[in-house]
Specification:
- Helix 1 (8-37) runs antiparallel to helix 10 (219-231) and helix 6 (143-152) runs antiparallel to helix 7.
- The protein has one domain (14-291).
- Strand 1 and strand 2 form a beta hairpin.
- It is 58% helix and 2% strand.
- The chain has 293 residues and is mainly alpha-helical.
- It has helices at 8-37, 48-51, 82-85, 97-125, 128-141, 143-152, 156-171, 180-183, 194-200, 219-231, 244-258, 264-271, 275-291; strands at residues 209-211, 215-217.
- The chain is built from 13 helices and two strands; from the N terminus they run αααααααααββαααα.
Length: 293
């Protein structure tokens, strides 16, 4: 097997390219947000029940959340509730709807043909308790995202809490396999991401866009996703920022999460007149609500 030496020069070059890409994406997000936010379309969801249904960052909706409005709060993965989406329809710019619908249907087929079958096998192979430990680990390893973004949002108290949670869970919690900060000491943190941070500094939502594999987003949240990935330690398990190993870890995190929520997406589709509109409305309203937190 051929071994390659990756020197400091190459690593610095990769870092510079990544920073340059972030700057370019941020500028694009700002100008597009300004352009599309100026004349937003006013589209209500198909029905109050459908429009109020929340979706998570994978495009999944829990059976409870697919019901009436006003129930649970989001978890660190970004699960949304109708309480957060609000009763009124969101003003949503959707200028690339043909693309978005095509990507929605692509992700829909990906879910039913690949992701769901793989997850069902995974769920049978691993007990729920073990999958819970893995979920805790992934949450703990993403602590830098929450720490940095809480600081950037002017919330040093929560940044300190997240740092304390990370230290407790990494030590007493055996490398983050157990959320001992919450279970043992009742210390709860505050989720924060870079898309939310940009919004707090005046960068608008812009317009709705659906990415293949990644799901619902916007120019602002796309930049935020890239920045959050840059702050996630598992991104750097190899010398390359995007590698089969890092992509595999990311995919495993999604499969492990979905193993607790199989059937939720089906509940959304069954309840909504137009699942695409329901998911779009829920996502946009959730992101707007996150800025008011």
């Amino acid at each position: 097997m051929e071994m390659r030496y990756v020197g400091p020069g190459r690593r610095k070059g990769d870092a510079r390219r990544m920073v340059a890409c972030l700057v370019v994406l941020l500028l694009i997000s700002f100008f597009l947000s300004a352009a599309w936010s100026a004349e937003p379309t006013d589209e209500a969801g198909p029905t109050p029940a459908a429009a109020g249904k929340p979706s998570d960052e994978y495009g999944n909706v829990t059976a409870e959340e697919a019901g009436a409005a006003g129930e649970k709060s989001p978890d660190a993965y970004g699960n949304v509730t109708a309480e957060q989406t609000g009763a009124e329809g969101a003003r949503i710019a959707d200028p690339v709807e043909p693309w978005n619908r095509a990507m929605y249907h692509f992700n829909d087929k990906l879910y039913f043909w690949v992701l769901k079958p793989v997850t069902k096998v995974y769920k049978r192979a691993l007990p729920e308790g073990f999958r819970g430990l893995i979920s805790n680990f992934y949450q703990n390893v993403k602590a830098p995202v929450r720490i940095v973004n809480n600081l950037l949002q002017g919330k040093p108290k929560y940044a300190g809490i997240e740092l304390g949670r990370f230290l407790l869970n990494s030590t007493v919690g055996v490398g983050g396999l157990r959320d001992c900060a919450t279970e043992c000491f009742g210390i709860k943190g505050r989720d924060a991401d870079f898309g939310q941070t940009l919004g707090r500094y005046g960068v608008g939502f812009g317009f709705y866009i659906v990415w293949p594999f990644l799901g619902p987003s916007s120019p602002r949240d796309t930049v935020g996703w890239v920045a959050d990935r840059a702050l996630t330690p598992t991104t750097y398990v190899t010398s390359q920022w995007i590698s089969p190993i890092s992509v595999g870890i990311y995919a495993h995190e999604k499969v492990n999460y979905l193993s607790f929520h199989i059937g939720d997406y089906e509940a959304l589709k069954a309840a909504a007149i137009d699942p695409y509109v329901a998911m779009r409305d829920a996502y946009v309203q959730y992101r707007e609500k996150a800025l008011q937190d």
